Amino acid sequence: MEAPVKRAYDGARRRAGSEATQRRIVEAATELFLRDGYGRTSVEAIAEAAGVSPATIYKLFGTKVAIAKRVGDVAVAGDHEATSLAQRDWYLTALNDPDPSRALRLIVEHGAALLARITPIIEMATAAAHIEPALAGFVGDGDQGRWRNNRRFIESLQSRGSLRPGLTVEDATDMMWTIQSPATVAALVMARGWSLDRYREWVLDQLEHAILAKGG
Hints:
CATH superfamily of the largest domain: Tetracycline Repressor, domain 2
Number of helices: 10
């Protein structure tokens, strides 16, 4: 009678161990990719940094490009949870907040933190796309996903009458997608040395004037 309980416990323990190992691998890969670049980072180097065997990495991820994909996913999410960005509590709260200015600030605050994490990964992937074309696909998919999430937020502003009069959802989405983007983080934070706080407040100011109705 106790065997099923023991098997379930052992299975849960193995899953927890596997998840912890994957986290170590992703964290080690992130550090090495950013320090040495994708091309100069071997699976063997990742394995050594993570304290596992190369065979374990191949068993859990299959390929180095799959590790890079997970590195990007974790950078976007900010954690190792499988919940998509569009289902995160902060994003859903922003979609439903009756105060459009407060909703926009929430989107900008989390968006700026997300971009600070992902922009170095994007630059690494873009630099290595000539040796691993799949990386360019990951970057493109991320750009499209960011546009779709921005559009969903813009549509929520339109539905509550908070979008600037005369501004289409398409144009407002394009503005938001451009103003709060990896390109502006790379230019202002990484190249010009702005603090993330300064960048976030600049983005908020730009978007408040660009997309919100007066008094919104």
